[in-house]
Structure to design on (233 residues):
């Protein structure tokens, strides 16, 4: 059974770079059929897609966040990562990693999801 | 502000049916498939419906999806207390080049 697990700091200071990792078990991120994504949810608010990556390096970013984002994949560790830079309090959220089932934007869905990690940006 | 609009809340008695609408436009729902997610407080979302109306095998047939034009609908029949959760729609917006989630709907069982 495919499982995803996020890891990273619970607290970061404004202007710093956040480093989040999603470890994948029960399957490989080197699958030809799937992509891998990050979604976040500020406390008490809705969901926002952040970025998606294919294991060979193709990347897709939310245009509103793209200038501050780097998403990468490490096939040797079967994990993928997200690094938002210059964070502000507005980046405080639960960050989820999830499998993008097809990578074809017109007909994809996210399943399964990791349990999420709360990241607070505060001085 | 999401480009996909959902009612903030819907409610019904146990055993009844609720429907949740997701209203978009020709640049998102009108062109691409919709998926639906259920989220309990403090938990990660789980997919209920994908490709407008298909259900993962683990999802009971009380949950259904449909789409017409630029709107999609999630239906829940035989409402149970365990269905109390937040529900979100998701699709791709070709104009914004972004996956967009709906504003979310809280389902309450009276």
């Amino acid at each position: 059974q495919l499982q995803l697990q996020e890891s990273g700091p619970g607290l970061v200071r404004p202007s710093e770079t956040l480093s989040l990792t999603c470890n994948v078990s029960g399957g490989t991120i080197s699958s030809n059929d799937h992509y891998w994504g990050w979604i976040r949810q500020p406390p008490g608010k809705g969901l926002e897609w952040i970025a998606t990556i294919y294991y060979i390096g193709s990347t897709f970013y939310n245009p509103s966040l793209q200038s501050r984002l780097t998403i990468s994949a490490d096939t040797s560790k079967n994990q993928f990562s997200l690094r938002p830079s210059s964070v502000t309090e507005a980046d405080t959220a639960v960050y989820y990693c999830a499998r993008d089932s097809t990578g074809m934007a017109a007909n994809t869905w996210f399943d399964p999801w990791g349990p999420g990690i709360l990241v607070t940006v505060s001085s | 502000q999401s480009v996909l609009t959902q009612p903030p809340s819907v409610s019904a008695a146990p055993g009844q049916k609720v429907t949740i609408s997701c209203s978009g436009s020709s640049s998102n729902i009108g062109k691409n498939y919709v998926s639906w997610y259920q989220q309990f407080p403090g938990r990660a979302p789980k997919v209920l419906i994908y490709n407008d109306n298909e259900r993962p095998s683990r999802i009971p047939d009380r949950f259904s999806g449909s789409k017409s034009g630029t709107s999609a609908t999630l239906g829940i029949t035989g409402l149970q207390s365990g269905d109390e959760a937040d529900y979100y729609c998701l699709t791709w917006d070709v104009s914004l080049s972004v996956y967009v989630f709906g504003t979310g709907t809280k389902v309450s069982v009276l």
